[in-house]
# Entry
Amino acid sequence: TRCTEYRHRTWHEALFRDLKSLGLDWGHSRVRRPERVERLLLALALAVLWLLALGQRVLRRGQRRQLDDRRRRTLSRFQLGLSWLRRLLATDQPLECVFHFWSVTLAFPKLS
# Structure
């Protein structure tokens, strides 16, 4: 039981780190009004889900070695997704955005 709790704790800490200093830089938003914070959190939640899905896609396609050190895997799924997104944008490659929520599929056109 204790090991399971600790695994969840480290996952939460990594997620906060991704939201703040290592990823979306939420701490520098300077948003203070509650209604605006709610909207920002919704946008951040959607961005996190999308980047996690993108990171999972990188893993499934065997592209992790292009982003992460083989000897010491340090990037979370979120960080893999963010790194892949940055790579696509830097190399001017098309970005396909598809979301699958339960039985609903939202497809967006490729960005180029």
User: Anything to note?
Assistant: Strands lie at 95-101, 104-111. The CA atoms of residues 85 and 95 lie 8 Å apart. The first strand starts at residue 95 and ends at 101.
